[in-house]
Amino acid sequence: MINIKQTNPIRRRGTETGKRPANLRYVYLLTAFVSIGALLFGYDQGVMGVIVADARWISLMKPANSWVTGAVVSLYDIGCLIGAMSIGFLADYCGRERTLSIACVIFVIGAVLQSASYNITSITIGRVILGYGVGACAGGVPLYVSEIAPAKLRGRIIGIEQMILCFGELIAFWLNYGFNYLETPDWWRIPLAIQVIPAVVLAIGCWFWVPPSPRWLVQQDRHQCAREVLARLHGDELADLQMAEIAEEVAFERAVTTATWADMFKPPVLRVTLLAMGVQFFQQITGTNSILYYTPSLFERGGITDPKTANLATGGVGVVLFVFAWVPIFLFDRLGRKTWLQIGLIGMCGAMIGITVLQWHAEGNPGNNGNYAIVAFPYLFYVFFNISWGVGSWTYATEIFPVMYRAKGNALSTASLWLSCYVVAQASPPIATAIGWGLYIIYSCICVLAFVFVRYAMVETRGKTLEEMSALFGIEGTLARRSGIDVDAKGGVIHIEEST
Fold first, then answer.
1. CB within 8 A of 52, min separation 6: which ones?
2. What is the crossing angle of helices 24-34 and 223-234, to 10°?
């Protein structure tokens, strides 16, 4: 019987001697590989927009109305929500990397089913199953990479994941654009089936090659294995310091809490839960996927009536996403998390206002060449989104939880993202049909609310280690007082834990 829990011993390689230096190349390599999960996420974010707008797909599937079309897209988000919630258990039980393998197996089943579908029901079921895999990957990848990244480079590391996610969107847009020229009405099956290949690669690699998170290993009382993984990542000297800090924090948290699901909604952890869920909620409810899922339809309402031109402009969105995903890799850790998020919201709000004005202009001036200017504003939106919220919300929501709460907290924050994503995907088509450009006024107002949330509710975390978050948010002191433990004597808790 296959043991889904990671139990393999991790030892120093026999060829290695002396003290090992930090190996950032290894950190970057692991980040890039597990971010294939982010590539799958990005690919599926971008692949359906052109497909559901294609006349041949509509003729075959025969969706009854815009609500049904919205359901094909948005029920995928329900699968993602379920997948995100499952990592709260799987990531703690199986290990972060094994969770990604399991997610990929389920992803493959869904991808095969939807690419072989001949009716709305089967393709929707396939998308829900595939969504489970995407949701688990979307939550599992940043959870893993945040736990292997150096504190001062955590934004950059998650920025690499975001860049690969955007590369997935770029691939999806341009594969759709190319295959759309095929004469066959089944052209759309090819881009839906291709994604099986990277999913299989990730499943195998995470099962046999990717090492477990050192923080998860400490939770499993596998301290020697954890120290070895840390040494491979950050060098022997820093590994000793990190092991002491991680072990101290885990032992302290065990002494003061059992880290149940109920604890996530009780003070002092409730504040962190609400912040993480809030930042991921606003990442989606500000309208990013309303543009991404329905870009061809948005351009059509803006006066671009030729389908090929609309699809070409949609492909440009993928280029913008990918190009500007590189900015946070080099700059995100230089400014605070809150600063980047506020800069992003100002630009995103301005872009939504631009979309509103151009759609209003197109209604009164059909066929006017000036309508083509609408292409610029989705591009502008994604410039600001990618340098800020694309990385910032994932970084913040992943890093602020203490280690014992991190898997559950990441599950809840990612579930919040997918729930808001579902609302946006399901509601956008009928709202756009009913009030047209008024939809983007709503998104502009939400950007203002998000700005208030970031400015007045969030706490800056730049440069903090994961083990410092508990003290930063007051969790450590509150739990210690309840348990009658002196926070300054946490080392004694470690000694007691390790000597029993």
1. 58, 63, 69, 72, 73
2. 110
Among 117, 116, 112, CA closest to 133: 112
> Whole-angstrom Cα distance, residue 166 to residue 45?
9
What integer is the mean pLDDT of 199-216?
95
Task: Give tens-digit pLDDT for 51-69.
Answer: 887 888 888 888 767 678 7
Region 140-157 average pLDDT? 89
For domain 24-210+257-464, the CATH superfamily is MFS general substrate transporter like domains (1.20.1250.20)
pLDDT for position 490:
55
Query: Is the pLDDT reported for residue 362 higher than 80?
Result: no
Six-digit token string for 465: 């280690």
Q: How far apart are CA 202 and CA 24, in angstroms?
A: 21
**pLDDT for 119-147, tens place per residue?**
888 999 999 999 999 999 998 999 999 89
Whole-angstrom Cα distance, residue 429 to residue 294?
8
Structure tokens at 484: 């009658």
33 and 204 in contact (C-beta within 8 Å)? no
Residue 477's closest CA among 366, 388, 402? 402
Cα Rg of the chain (Å, integer)? 23
Nearest-angstrom CA–CA distance, 333 and 164: 18
Q: Which residue has the tokens 């998308």?
A: 127
Closest CA to 147 of 84, 222, 96, 104: 96
- Number of neighbouring beta carbons within 10 Å of residue 110: 26
Q: Which residues contact 34 (CB under 8 A, 6 or more apart)?
A: 97, 100, 141, 144, 145, 161, 202, 206, 210
pLDDT digits (tens, 9 = 90+) for 234-282: 998 889 888 988 888 888 878 777 778 898 998 889 999 999 999 999 9
Cβ atoms < 10 Å from Cβ of 477? 13
Alpha-carbon span 49 to 378, nearest angstrom: 14
- Buried-state track 448-463, b at ≥16 Cβ within 10 A, e below 16: eebbebbeeebbebbe
DSSP codes joined into one string, 213-275: PHHHHHHTT-HHHHHHHHHHHH-HHHHHHHHHHHHHHHHHHHHH----TGGGGSTTHHHHHHH
Q: What secondary structure does DSSP assign to 31-83, as a single string?
A: HHHHTHHHHHHHHHHHHHHHHHT-HHHHHHH--SSHHHHHHHHHHHHHHHHHH
| Most confident by average pLDDT, 152-166, 233-247, 340-354 | 340-354
